[in-house]
Specification:
The protein has 3 helices and 4 strands; from the N terminus they run H-E-E-E-E-H-H. By secondary structure, the chain is an alpha+beta fold.
Length: 142
């Protein structure tokens, strides 16, 4: 099996001096284009503590407009999530898969998506939030 590793880091792209002269790219000048792989890494770092396993797919292609995240819930259910400007959605019920026939709703946040998939996530996340609020309360009383 051939696995293609894709690294979409914009820092590694060659500096092309003809870029600005190409009329197809002029519309992008000065705009803040998100790299979805970086967004996906931030999503993973934000909620990894509340799931069994979560990582950005190295098998499925990433681009400026899409990235894929593999997540295993504490209930041991596996999902592949698609991250786009529209949000996050389940695209498969296993790692590194994308089923075009699967029509699942987009969620605006990873919290909303995981909340809908995993009661254990909801509990762990809720407990972490409660502990954080209690710590803030103690800090403000001292």
């Amino acid at each position: 099996m051939l696995i293609m590793e894709t690294n979409c880091s914009p820092m590694e792209l060659p500096n092309n001096t003809e870029f600005e002269e190409d009329s197809d790219y002029r519309d992008f000048e000065g705009t803040d284009v998100k790299d979805m792989r970086l967004e996906a890494e931030a999503v993973v770092n934000d909620v990894l503590f509340a799931v069994s396993n979560m990582f950005v797919s190295k098998t499925l292609p990433c681009a400026e407009d899409v990235a894929y995240i593999n997540v295993e819930t504490r209930e041991r259910n596996r999902y592949c999530l698609e991250l786009t400007e529209a949000g996050l959605r389940v695209v498969a019920y296993d790692f590194d898969q994308a089923d075009d026939r699967l029509q699942t709703p987009y969620h605006e946040t990873v919290y909303s998506l995981l909340d809908s998939l995993s009661p254990a996530y909801r509990e762990v996340f809720g407990n972490a939030l409660l502990q954080r609020l209690e710590a803030l309360k103690k800090d403000s009383q001292s």
